[in-house]
Design brief:
single chain; 5-stranded parallel β-sheet; disordered N terminus; HAD_sf; HAD-like domain-containing protein
């Protein structure tokens, strides 16, 4: 197997993947929840939710705070996110890509903005063999920082010992990809599995 970086002589050795909306998707049924999908997505963009993802709020505190902000009962917020958790599923095409990368000798990490309770649920949404594809999973709740906080990227770099210039970071949010580039990593903004797999060929070559 040969690999090469798109820019410069540094060979790509490592990949860091976002989890939500890249390796896992979620789509709760609107008919089962009192909270509309648009409101649910807006909740995910609040500072209160960010603090929850940074491990600064408990689950009950987070539901109470965002419920107050949006005029929704905390119990309805809780039910909406339980339904969202239930709808989580992994993307088979992306998992197959990870298997190929792993078999070709690349190091693979995950880096996710996720609360500790949500992480405990997400861990059940893939098999032990699938989680074993990752050298390590980094979550914002444990790091006490979230993307695009520079501290989170530096934490991952320090803990994994990865070489930033030889690492490709993959995330669906442009601000997270830009922050990765500022930390010295290469970056791919994820749109869909087919597009990512096509883009991947610009960074590496996998012998078959």
């Amino acid at each position: 197997m040969q690999s090469h970086s798109q820019k410069g002589p540094t060979k790509v050795t490592t990949f860091v993947f976002d989890l939500g909306d890249v390796l896992f998707t979620w789509a709760p049924s609107p008919s089962l929840s009192d909270v509309p999908p648009k409101t649910l997505h807006n909740i995910l963009r609040t500072n209160s939710w960010f603090d929850y993802e940074r491990g600064r709020l408990s689950e009950a505190e987070a539901y109470g705070k965002v419920g107050s902000e949006f005029g929704i009962d905390a119990s309805s917020v809780k039910k909406a996110f339980e339904l969202a958790r239930d709808s989580l599923k992994s993307d088979p095409a992306m998992l197959d890509t990870l298997r190929t990368l792993k078999a070709s000798g690349y190091r693979i990490y995950a880096m996710s903005n996720i609360s500790a309770p949500d992480w405990e649920v997400l861990r059940t949404k893939a098999s032990r063999e699938e989680w074993a594809l990752f050298d390590r999973v980094f979550i914002s709740a444990a790091a006490r920082a979230r993307k695009p906080d520079a501290e989170f990227y530096q934490h991952v770099i320090a803990e994994s010992g990865l070489e930033p210039a030889a690492t490709v970071f993959v995330d669906d949010k442009s601000e997270n990809v830009e922050a990765a580039k500022e930390a010295g990593l290469q970056g791919i903004q994820y749109k869909d599995a087919a597009g990512f797999i096509e883009t991947l060929s610009n960074y590496i070559t996998i012998s078959k």
